Amino acid sequence: MAEQPFPGTALLAQVLAADNTETPPLRTTRRGSQPPARGTEDGKPPPLLSRRNSILSRRSSFGMVPGSRRPSWMLHRRVSFTGLPIFQPILKTRLENTYRIGPDKGCKFDAERVRRVLEGTLACALGTAAYSPQGSAPLAQSLTELLQNQAKEVVPPRYKLVCHVVLGQQGQQSLMVASRGLWDPETDNFASATFSNASLFAVATVYGVYFE
Amino acid sequence: CPPASFLVDEVSSIIKEAIEGAIGGNAYQHSKVNQWTTSVVEQTLSQLTRLGKPFKYIVTCVIMQKNGAGLHTASSCFWDNSSDGTCTVRWENKTMYCIVSAFGLAL
């Protein structure tokens, strides 16, 4: 996760240092004199072009011919020794330590609240649904996503959620759903709800695990 | 130390062993189902902890009698995709289906 300096910039720094020491100050004053709006436009008025020629001719190693039109990126952006543009490196943000090892007081996973949310959502979503072999698979998937979104709203922050739904056809069979978790019992918990009608049954479980 | 990752193959083999050990050659019996699910889940969990990785685990087991009815399971998770993972194993014999899901959440 450490930020690596972009290799191109190191090379450019070397090239600039090795180059005429007079040029850096000249470049900055030239940039200051140009209006800020000319970020990427291509048209250059002739008087500015002559000024640019004087710097660029000094840098003959860049392979530029005096008097020719430069593309806008060569004049306004940093250029490597090959003449190609160097884009600014994308810096990865490093998050600071929060020094928190547990959830705030009163901010734990509220199993009862989540259970009520699950029951309500299941009744709403499956109230009139009937089991069908093709339709029930996407129904189960959409149900998990729906339940997860509902649970996210009532669960405190810094909790990871796992939402598991079992949807089956109501027949004369028996079924057992069991689960076990290895977690911190003080901060982590789960909630489950069931729903059944004449043609299908559903068992939904949401586990909330604290992430430190 | 480098952050550990959830290796699906490793976990999948652990789950398969646990299922075979608990209900391997048995036929569905309503009275024993409770005990079977418990033993599958406990066996899986203890093997997972033996891996010694900095993870919190959740193991779910569904055992259903084969009676012509259809069954679907689905799960969705709100977590960190780069470090957390899940593994689901479907097993069946002549009289029952068994679906075991294991979720690992990195600390």
TrEMBL record, chain A:
<dbReference type="GO" id="GO:0005737">
    <property type="term" value="C:cytoplasm"/>
</dbReference>
<dbReference type="GO" id="GO:0005868">
    <property type="term" value="C:cytoplasmic dynein complex"/>
</dbReference>
<dbReference type="InterPro" id="IPR005334">
    <property type="entry name" value="Tctex-1-like"/>
</dbReference>
<feature type="region of interest" description="Disordered">
    <location>
        <begin position="16"/>
        <end position="52"/>
    </location>
</feature>
<dbReference type="Pfam" id="PF03645">
    <property type="entry name" value="Tctex-1"/>
</dbReference>
<dbReference type="GO" id="GO:0045505">
    <property type="term" value="F:dynein intermediate chain binding"/>
</dbReference>
<comment type="similarity">
    <text>Belongs to the dynein light chain Tctex-type family.</text>
</comment>
<dbReference type="InterPro" id="IPR038586">
    <property type="entry name" value="Tctex-1-like_sf"/>
</dbReference>
<dbReference type="GO" id="GO:0007018">
    <property type="term" value="P:microtubule-based movement"/>
</dbReference>
<protein>
    <submittedName>
        <fullName>Tctex1 domain containing 4</fullName>
    </submittedName>
</protein>
TrEMBL record, chain B:
<dbReference type="GO" id="GO:0005874">
    <property type="term" value="C:microtubule"/>
</dbReference>
<keyword id="KW-0243">Dynein</keyword>
<dbReference type="GO" id="GO:0045505">
    <property type="term" value="F:dynein intermediate chain binding"/>
</dbReference>
<keyword id="KW-0206">Cytoskeleton</keyword>
<comment type="similarity">
    <text>Belongs to the dynein light chain Tctex-type family.</text>
</comment>
<keyword id="KW-0493">Microtubule</keyword>
<dbReference type="GO" id="GO:0005737">
    <property type="term" value="C:cytoplasm"/>
</dbReference>
<dbReference type="InterPro" id="IPR038586">
    <property type="entry name" value="Tctex-1-like_sf"/>
</dbReference>
<dbReference type="InterPro" id="IPR005334">
    <property type="entry name" value="Tctex-1-like"/>
</dbReference>
<dbReference type="GO" id="GO:0005868">
    <property type="term" value="C:cytoplasmic dynein complex"/>
</dbReference>
<keyword id="KW-0505">Motor protein</keyword>
<dbReference type="GO" id="GO:0007018">
    <property type="term" value="P:microtubule-based movement"/>
</dbReference>
<protein>
    <recommendedName>
        <fullName>Dynein light chain Tctex-type 1</fullName>
    </recommendedName>
</protein>
<dbReference type="Pfam" id="PF03645">
    <property type="entry name" value="Tctex-1"/>
</dbReference>
<keyword id="KW-0963">Cytoplasm</keyword>
